[in-house]
Amino acid sequence: MQSSTVEPIIRISDVSKYFDDFQALKDVSLEVALGERVVVCGPSGSGKSTLVRCINGLEHHQSGSIVVDDVELGANRESLAAIRAKVGMVFQQFNLFPHLTVLENLTLGPVRARKMAKSDAEDLARRYLERVRIPEQADKYPRQLSGGQQQRVAIARSLCMEPKIMLFDEPTSALDPEMINEVLDVMAELASSGMTMICVTHEMGFARRVADKMVFMDHGEIVEMSAPETFFSAPESQRCQEFLAKILQH
Amino acid sequence: MRIIGLSVALVLLLAGCSSNWGWYVVNPMTDAGSSNLSFLLSGLGSTILLSITAISISVVVGLLIALPGLSTNRTLRSINRVYVEFVRAIPILVLILWVYYGLPQVADVAINVFWAGVIALALSDSAFQAEIFRAGIQSIDKGQYEASHSVSLSYSDTMRFVILPQAIKRILPALGNQLVYMLKMSSLVSVIGMPELTRKANELVVTEYRPLEIYTILVLEYLVLILIVSAAMRWLERRMQADERQ
Prior knowledge:
CATH superfamily of the largest domain in chain B: MetI-like
Strand content of chain A: 25-35%
CATH topology of chain A: Rossmann fold
Helix content of chain B: over 70%
Helix content of chain A: 40-55%
Radius of gyration of chain A: 18 Å
Largest interface: A-B, 32 and 22 residues
Shape of chain A: globular
Mean pLDDT of chain B: 90
Mean pLDDT of chain A: 92
CATH superfamily of chain A: P-loop containing nucleotide triphosphate hydrolases
Distance between the termini of chain B: 30 Å
CATH topology of the largest domain in chain B: MetI-like fold
Number of strands of chain A: 10
CATH class of chain A: Alpha Beta
CATH architecture of the largest domain in chain B: Orthogonal Bundle
CATH architecture of chain A: 3-Layer(aba) Sandwich
Order of helices and strands of chain A: HEEEHEEHEHHHEHEHEEHH
Structural class of chain B: mainly alpha
Number of domains of chain A: 1
Oligomer: heterodimer
Number of helices of chain A: 10
Strand order of the largest sheet of chain A: 6-7-8-3-9-10
Largest sheet of chain B: none
CATH class of the largest domain in chain B: Mainly Alpha
Low-confidence stretches of chain A: none
């Protein structure tokens, strides 16, 4: 377990989050070490997306603390900007900018937020497009690409900000089955390069392959957290056993 | 094509007139007629300039009023509400009169008819523009904000590069409507003596006493102007669909 020996880059302590009367997160605590790959799974409505969205401030938690790379989230406006500069995010629905070409999607952040020169940003963008294996799509619009290609563009767009941490919020859930693997391959390659990652996904094959730590959530709580070998072979809680039985059936 | 068809219709109308019509007042073949025609057309520049200036200002003001309306802050939202409800409730003609005769007394400044017209038209239209922008911006998916946030864009960059380009494309038909509306409402500025199309027609009617023919020409002037605007807006809409090509 790397996480116990290395100072964590993400430290989530006793975080609670309410949507009006509904409590989406109940005193959740989680530590992620630099370079660690965490896979979060659980039934829908269990709070896993909310947890990930709290980490880069897309949702605001009401109690507890989230510290990312020594910056506490929510203390002030600057902390939010500091944290989102370190954290990349990939969404279930891709959320590419439909009115911009692939290349423009990738360079917008670097040029406007990182103040890079346009030509440098384009070089960077082309490098990352190469890395997600779609360099030839640079001048197309998102609509002209398949779902799998769009999601890879979204990953490249995040990487162009050169984040320390990548968050994936069900990145393959909106994809046709035959496109899932091309996205997972890119993610696995990213994992092997040493990126710190938190992935919300139900792709258990992928989880087995890349995860250092498995997290199972249900009803806003972390029910089980263990290394993948233990997680898949001997889950402790009954809820986790039931969940795994359901999704590993086929 | 449409313009040509219209001209043909106009010629037929002129040619086929009965004895009750006195088209001689605007007959381009006679000296008097052609000088009357050019007198009528001399208001065209003012109408266009007035409308374009007013709509340019109202688009900017409308956007600035729309943005607080999108805030989660209640005070900011109520600023938007109060402005829209108040301005929208004033008839344009009343606003023109008030700005021209009233504002110089309140603000102690001299306002010429052109700027009085521009201010009144722009103010009145800005409330509608604000609502159009608010609707357009609200129609953009929340994911676009989240993606902008995740690549560290500031609020103003998010609006400028991500949200507004998409919103404007969606509200372009409504903006075209407002421009047409503005061109028509600019005729009201004739009451304070602005020498635009309608004022010119009124003046000519007084000297020639041929209201039917002169106002018919006036109708056609607005019609042609607005058909040109419509065509231009449709061309712009097509141009902005570039990213929807397959």
